């Protein structure tokens, strides 16, 4: 392990979430001085950081990226910003699209402006493979057209372009990290892998899903976080958009069968109409090209889908973890 992050002051927005909590922990383990932003709430909850054995080694701050003053305050004295805070649920974006613009686009504007004023060394902006929409060709490289097939996707395209504009206009050292379909412990049950595992773990004889024909490029959360750190250490990545992908696709249906095998479940799958996206909004194929990140940093995934699912199942089937999920309800 290199000493690149030793004593380096780092801000992680969205540190209370799924990927953000894992990234914050990896940074602490590598010696960084982590300032972890959790979204302010009246419950005094730090999200997944409440459960982290390392949260007492972080400076946890509460705030909201929709507030420019908050963004300025948390960016002071920081070397590197990992910007992960966002609204991410696709179905909820159909109901509340304005909130996605406010958080994902305006919130990103607030953060890049704050980073510019603070003079940070690097601004690592988190994108999503959803911006590509259904693949026009595979594997999907960074030159693939952007297709806003949901309000969520549109807001992330806007956020990506806002971040990149600060590189072009103000020389803010921005990198757009574009992870494909991250999964693992702590993921929201609105995502397909936790949806399957939690229903089976709760004893369901039938599990309810949407369309199982789309393919996804799944990446275990530890691999995604390693990719983010590698990009932040790479000077040649400034001003670049870079996929974090496994270069492998698997259908939702085949993922279900793999989980069925690993969990020894012999129940039935039932299609739930409320879990189907509008026809023009479903992304039917995602398979990411990871050549660019390999060439720039040497990164490649270390945990294959079978091993990643085994670890994820082990975490979710722990009763202390499973009780945090409402397996009998559809998570929008």
UniProtKB/TrEMBL annotation:
<protein>
    <submittedName>
        <fullName>dTDP-glucose 4,6-dehydratase</fullName>
    </submittedName>
</protein>
<dbReference type="InterPro" id="IPR016040">
    <property type="entry name" value="NAD(P)-bd_dom"/>
</dbReference>
<dbReference type="GO" id="GO:0016831">
    <property type="term" value="F:carboxy-lyase activity"/>
</dbReference>
<feature type="domain" description="NAD(P)-binding">
    <location>
        <begin position="11"/>
        <end position="312"/>
    </location>
</feature>
<dbReference type="InterPro" id="IPR026390">
    <property type="entry name" value="LegB-like"/>
</dbReference>
<dbReference type="InterPro" id="IPR036291">
    <property type="entry name" value="NAD(P)-bd_dom_sf"/>
</dbReference>
<dbReference type="InterPro" id="IPR045869">
    <property type="entry name" value="Arna-like_SDR_e"/>
</dbReference>
<dbReference type="Pfam" id="PF16363">
    <property type="entry name" value="GDP_Man_Dehyd"/>
</dbReference>
């Amino acid at each position: 392990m290199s000493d690149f992050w030793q004593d380096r002051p780092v801000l992680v927005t969205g540190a209370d979430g799924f990927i953000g909590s894992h990234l914050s922990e990896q940074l602490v383990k590598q010696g960084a001085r982590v300032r972890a932003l959790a979204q302010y709430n009246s419950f005094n909850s730090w999200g997944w950081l409440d459960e982290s054995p390392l949260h007492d080694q972080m400076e946890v701050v509460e705030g909201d990226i929709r507030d420019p003053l908050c963004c300025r305050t948390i960016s002071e004295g920081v070397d590197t910003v990992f910007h992960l805070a966002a609204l991410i649920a696709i179905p909820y974006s159909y109901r509340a699209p304005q909130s996605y613009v406010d958080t994902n686009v305006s919130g990103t504007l607030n953060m890049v402006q704050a980073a510019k004023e603070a003079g940070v060394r690097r601004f690592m902006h988190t994108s999503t493979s959803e911006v590509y929409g259904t693949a026009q060709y595979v594997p999907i490289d960074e030159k693939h057209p952007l297709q806003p097939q949901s309000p969520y996707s549109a807001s992330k395209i806007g956020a990506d372009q806002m971040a990149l504009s600060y590189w072009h206009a103000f020389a803010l050292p921005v990198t757009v990290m574009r992870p494909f379909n991250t999964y693992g412990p702590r993921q929201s049950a609105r995502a397909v892998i936790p949806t399957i595992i939690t229903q089976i773990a709760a004893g369901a004889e039938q599990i309810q899903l949407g369309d199982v024909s789309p393919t996804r490029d799944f990446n275990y959360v530890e691999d995604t976080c390693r990719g983010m750190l590698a990009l932040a250490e790479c000077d040649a990545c400034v001003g670049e958009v870079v996929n974090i992908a496994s270069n492998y696709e698997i259908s939702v249906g085949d993922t279900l069968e793999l989980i069925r095998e690993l969990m020894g479940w012999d129940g039935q799958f039932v299609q739930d109409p409320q879990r189907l996206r509008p026809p023009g909004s479903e992304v039917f194929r995602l398979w990411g090209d990871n050549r660019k990140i390999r060439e720039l940093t040497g990164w490649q995934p270390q945990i294959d889908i079978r091993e990643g699912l085994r670890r994820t199942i082990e975490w979710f089937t722990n009763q202390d973890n499973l009780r945090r999920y409402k397996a009998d309800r559809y998570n929008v």
